[in-house]
Design a protein that fits this description.
The structure is a single chain. The protein is α+β, with helices and mostly antiparallel strands. It has one domain. 29% of the residues lie in helices and 32% in strands. The protein has 1 helix and 3 strands, in the order βββα. The longest helix has 22 residues. The protein is extended, with a radius of gyration of 16 Å. It starts with 15 loop residues before the first strand and ends with a helix.
Amino acid sequence: MKIRASNNILPVYANFAVLDTTKDEVVLNFCHAEGGQEQPQGLLVQKVVMTPQNLKNLHVRIGELLENYQMRHGPLE
């Protein structure tokens, strides 16, 4: 499949995610934590909603990606 990006898509940095589900949807809230330990704050930077089947497909693909990464760069702890 050929994929094209719209002109307003910008990369975002997220260092944690908050996940939720309903019977028909999975919600992935990607967030950025900042402010240190004294006053931590989280900022929602991207929300992705998908079907459970699409999440399962993503899970398989992420597993493959992580395995390839560790073969090239060494195991993650």
